[in-house]
Amino acid sequence: MRKPIMKIALSILLVAVVLVGGTLAYLVTQTELLTNTFAVVDIDTEIEETPGEGSGSEKKPTVQNNSNVPVYVRAIAVVTTEEGSSVPVSDADVRIKYSYDGTKWVKNGDYYYYTEPVASDASTYKLFDGVEVNITDTGAKFAVYVYHESVEAKDFNWGGSTTPEEKAEDIAGLFN
Question: Is it the case that residue 39 has pLDDT exceeding 70?
Fold first, then answer.
């Protein structure tokens, strides 16, 4: 009869030790309230182009960074048919002469990525060196729109990427 009472007493003692120990462990590990502070950055970039209307060969757009932080930029040029055009105009009818200097603007997917951070109050190298039109119909009216996006430039540990193509791929990840 003594053994069952001893087993019950030890079981109760064990439960009490676990409860007290667990409670003390919980109370010891509680920390004070932490406050995370986030700073919102206002990124302001715009397309700059040769003023006035001119021939397509004069179009040499750049992206100007008006922000107070450096940014990475991606851009794409899109051809659209203007209202009143006698024929539809597509990308096949207009060749955009992108600036292939091999290091600054690099194509990755549909976009061109500027592989250098653009400093405050600075501009990118020109995205393209004009356009060539392959349409003989003088009634064709079209526009070339340059769409761009910018993100705050981060200090990259380029992870071994040394080529402009690898850098463009890393920068593309910032936009997704």
Answer: yes
